[in-house]
Each structure stands twice: as structure tokens, then as C-alpha cells.
Amino acid sequence: MKKVLVLGAGLVAGPLVRYLLDQPEFSVAVADMEAGRAARLVAGHPRGAAEVLDIGDRAALAAAVGRSDLVVSMVPYTFHPLVAELAIEQGKSMVTASYVGPAMRALDARAKERGVILLNELGLDPGIDHMEAMRVIHEVHDDGGSVLGFTSYCGGLPAPEANTNPFGYKFSWSPRGVLLASKNSAKFLKDGRIVTIPSEDLFARPEIIGIPGLGDFEGYPNRDSVAYREAYGIPEAQTVFRGTLRYPGWCETVRKMVELGLLDDAPKDRSAGTFHGLMRELSGAAAGADAKAAVAARLRLEPGSAVLSRLEWLGLFEDTPLPAAKGSALDNMTALMIDRLSYAAGERDMIVLQHEFLARTGSGRTERIVSTLIDYGIPGGDSSMSRTVGLPAAIGARLVLEGRIGLTGVQVPVHPEIYGPILDELASLGVRFEEKRRVL
């Protein structure tokens, strides 16, 4: 029986663990710092085990890896290279849902020498987005055509009926990760020209993106899209853009939050001790001055602006004690937003992922190909985010253990032997794309 070690029992691990436990030839050990979280995922399954593990304890981690045939790492991305090193040392393969960073990429040669695969970016974004992109791109190329443009948007959002707060957002995965991503710069290719967006301008000019059946969303650029011209094998493309979707209003609000310093991650002892005091501090309000007016002046907002109303709704002008009085503004905002922007019992989240390709066929026609995934969480059950992140990683782990992936080294799912069976399996589980083509 093959033994799988799942590191981390967080928000998106449930569907992954259950899928693996559904495979009769696998046993699954779930390791987490909190015994209760791991035990809840295993739920007494006869082939499951819950373990307490401090990911920072190298010896304990090495021992846990040594007891397994494959490791699925669902811990914070900064730990993945450590897990990968220990896996390589013991000749074990690893699967993650996170981006490949420089430290992981540097392990490629060592992994190949040991004959193991470090299969990364096997979640939603990154993950399913790569797989569907490559499916269409390979189809176009195999037909003798070329991809002139590729534009992709993805968002994890409340379903329309659960969109009940002024931010148009609720957290279905790491809140800190969502907020930190708001401070990234971005780069993309447009009409043959590289466009660079500094972090302070990330939300300055969102595009309006219409999704049939759902209405209009805001779209803004996501990290470095230019690299995907090479990663996807489309050197002919003149436009390559990957972006994030949000409900209208998000971009202007987060831009002002960043400008005010609400997402700064430097720890600081804050004597005021309340959110109202934090806003006074960040706005530079004079003694006795109204904090809301000072924030409006500092951010050049009208007193009745929607942004100011959203900040007020969030509770930033209330005398609520800071959860982390000696932490960073980001620490306190993360805690506040978890409290105010969480899903209520029975509410659904929604994943929207849309790829648009401008292609020239082998016969010389120009086509627009749009492939769209819309997926909803299950009321009272799994979120769509947990399914679309956890299931691809689980299916990938199964394929590796079954010997159906012959690649070694650091890999992402851009090869047919990886993305083909994963997309087929996801479709059988109800996670599927709808494709439309139109000749221009």
C-alpha cells in the first residue's frame, strides 16, 4: 500500500485528503501543528492517521517524509523548498499547489539525479489555469495554427447571493496571502510591448470584464505574465496577460488601503491600541481632530465616498482593541477582515476562471476562443476554492504514485501527460470548462 504524507490541514486540504482516502491502495497521514485539525480531516478513516508536526523541526519532518512514498505539501510556500530537499534526500516525490520560486527551481538537477518529481503549481491559480491554457494551445498548434494573444482572469469570490458586504469579497483561503498579493508589482505583454505596473499602481486602472450570466467584474494584472510566453510555448504571441477578478469597488478601496499604510507588514508597538487610534496614526490626524476627516484628506476622498464608507463599515473608525497591539498594520487588518469578511454558515463561494485566446488557424482563419470555468461551493460542505485547489494536487499525487507521469525534476502541469488526465478527472467530479469559438 502506498503511503501519502499530507503536510498541512488548512482551509483547502479537506477535498484533497478525502480524495486520497477514497483510493483503496493508499494510506494517508495528515500532519499539522494542531492535532484537532488533522484529526478532523482524517475523520477516523481506517487508512488515515493524524499526526502533530512542527514544520520547523527538521528532524521530525525528515522522519515523517521518510515514512511516506510521496509528500503533498500544503503548508505556507516558504517551507516548500525545505520539504523538497528532505524528499530528494530520501528519494521521495513531492506535490504542491504553490508557485515555483527560485529556491525550488534550484533543486531541479538534484531531483532529476534522484529520479523524483517535484510537481508544483497544481492548484487553481496556479494549476487548473495552466492546464486548460495548455490544452487549448496544444490543440491550436497541433492543427498547424498559432496563438496571437492570450488573456486570462481568475477570481475566488462570494457567489452572487452571498455577495452581502460593501467589499464584494469574503475569504476562502489565506487572508494574509490575499492582502500581501495586493502589494505586488505586475508585468505583461500587450501588442508586442512589455508593460510594467509598479505595486502602487496595481489597482489604478482595472479593466471591466464581463462574464456571461454573472455580469461585470474588475480585472487587474497578476504578477509577471511575460514569463508565460515561454512557459506556455507561445513565442508568437503579441499579448500575454494574466489577471485577477473582483467585484466592482474592490480595486479603488484596496488601492487606498495600501496608500494609507493599512497593509504594511512591519511590526510596531502601537500605543493607541484601537483601530480608531491606528487610523489616527496613519492619517496623521492632529490632536482632537476627527480621524475619518483626516483619512479623507490624506487619501483625497470626498467625505461621502464609497471607499470611506467601506472603511467605516469594516470598523476602522471604532474604538475596538487591536488584536495585535505590537504587530504590524497588516496583522491587525488580517484579523479584522477575517472577522468581518467571512462566509456565514451555508453560504457558497464561487470560482470564475476565463481564458481568451486569439488564434490563427492552420487554414489562415482568425478565431477567438473563450474557455470559462464557473464553479460553486457546496452549502454546508466544501468550498469551491478548496475543491479547485485540493483536487488537482490530489489527482496529481495519484498519477505520480501510479507511475503515470514519467517526468522528473521540478515540473509544472504544462505537459499533456500531466494536464490531460487531471482535467478529465476534474470534469468527472463536476469541475469543467465551457468553450466557445468564434471566427473573426
Topology diagram in text:
Blueprint: E1 2-7, H1 14-21, E2 26-32, H2 35-42, E3 48-52, H3 58-66, E4 70-73, H4 80-89, E5 93-96, H5 102-105, H6 108-114, E6 117-119, H7 128-142, E7 146-158, H8 175-181, E8 186-190, E9 193-197, E10 207-211, E11 215-221, H9 227-231, E12 239-246, H10 250-260, H11 275-283, H12 291-298, H13 306-314, H14 329-340, E13 349-360, E14 366-376, H15 384-401, E15 409-411, H16 416-428, E16 434-439
Parallel strand pairs: 1-2, 1-4, 2-3, 4-5, 5-6, 6-15, 7-12
Antiparallel strand pairs: 7-13, 8-9, 10-11, 11-12, 13-14, 14-16
Walk me through the structure.
The N and C termini lie far apart (54 Å). Helix 3 packs across helix 4 (80-89), helix 8 packs across helix 14 (329-340) and helix 15 crosses helix 16 (416-428). This protein is α/β, with parallel strands linked by helices and 440 residues long. The model has no long low-confidence stretch (mean pLDDT 94). The protein is built from 16 helices and 16 strands. The longest helix has 18 residues, at 384-401. The protein has helices spanning 14-21, 35-42, 58-66, 80-89, 102-105, 108-114, 128-142, 175-181, 227-231, 250-260, 275-283, 291-298, 306-314, 329-340, 384-401, 416-428, and strands at residues 2-7, 26-32, 48-52, 70-73, 93-96, 117-119, 146-158, 186-190, 193-197, 207-211, 215-221, 239-246, 349-360, 366-376, 409-411, 434-439. It folds into 3 domains: 2-119, Rossmann fold (3-Layer(aba) Sandwich), CATH 3.40.50; 128-250 and 345-381 and 433-439, Dihydrodipicolinate Reductase, domain 2 (2-Layer Sandwich), CATH 3.30.360; 261-340, Domain 3, Saccharopine reductase (Orthogonal Bundle). It is 35% helix and 24% strand. A 7-stranded parallel β-sheet has the order 3-2-1-4-5-6-15, with helices on both faces. Strands 10-11-12-7-13-14-16 form a 7-stranded mixed β-sheet, covered by helices on one side.
